Amino acid sequence: MNIGLIGTGNMGRILIEAFIESKAVQPANMIVTNRTIEKAYDIQAQHPSVKVAQNAKEVVQHSNIIFLCVKPLDIHPLLIQLKNDLQFAQCIVSITSPISVEQLESVVNCQVARIIPSITNRALAGVSLFTYGESCSRDYQQVLYELFSAISHPVLIDHSITRIASDIVSCGPAFLSFLLQKFVSAAVSETNISKEKAIELASQMVIGMGKLLEKEIFTLPTLQEKVCVKGGVTGEGIKVLEAELGNLFEHVFQQTHAKYYEDIEKVGQQFNI
Q1: Which of 140, 157, 174 lies at the terminal end of a domain, its last residue?
Q2: Domain-located, residue 272
Q3: Which residue of 52, 164, 168, 249 has the lowest C-beta tally within 10 Å?
Q4: Residue 256 · residue 97 · CB < 8 Å
Q5: Please, are residues 79 and 89 in contact by the beta-carbon 8 Å criterion?
Q6: Could you tell me if 18 and 110 lie in one domain?
Q7: How far is CA 241 from CA 201, 244, 253, in A?
Q8: Distance (Å, rounded) from C-alpha 260 to C-alpha 263?
Q9: What gap in Å lies between CA 87 and CA 128, rounded to an integer?
Q10: Which pTM does this prediction carry?
């Protein structure tokens, strides 16, 4: 089965490299293109068996599954451009959250799915969020599930929780990275520890914490409970976090949802939905 990717930006490239590293897709079965074609050739330079198409139509002509790794407002014009070339035996997969499978199906007559990946998939870890269109056959559902099982933990979601699920899975690494950098900066400013040493310690702490959760040795609540000994230093730190965090994450999600609904409105105007 041939896998096509239209768009080789950050997430498109992550998928390409994860599929190849996991051996879920052989490089020779992959065809890619990008608006700036040099970016596609950069991938081919690292993986010579990957084929480079000069345009999106060429990708469609040689692929069974086509991943649309472009910006939300570029999806509709791309579908209009490709609709006469797509066959029902093919499946397109959008990786962007504001566009629903129903909107995709309103334009094209092929099978469709939406799969929202995460940067963590590059480490063959983390979650990918699945929503299948009504047109998506059991065979394609199985193929896509197996494909992403090689690089992630696939989770089927309802459209109603798309944004919050994406905030946790896709935006979460950036949010937590920001907080950890603040954590490190405070350690450096308040003590004699070097930035390099603080980053090393914080990074290894996160890796270790992830392994505790992965092995189900602790859950998030029990992990906090085990570390936070009554009357100890950790408890004093928790008191500060409880007092000062307030509604921080509520505000984060309010902001991401506001942007999401803005994008949905713009996309809806394109699809006339």
Answers
A1: 157
A2: no
A3: 249
A4: no
A5: no
A6: yes
A7: 20, 5, 19
A8: 5
A9: 26
A10: 0.93
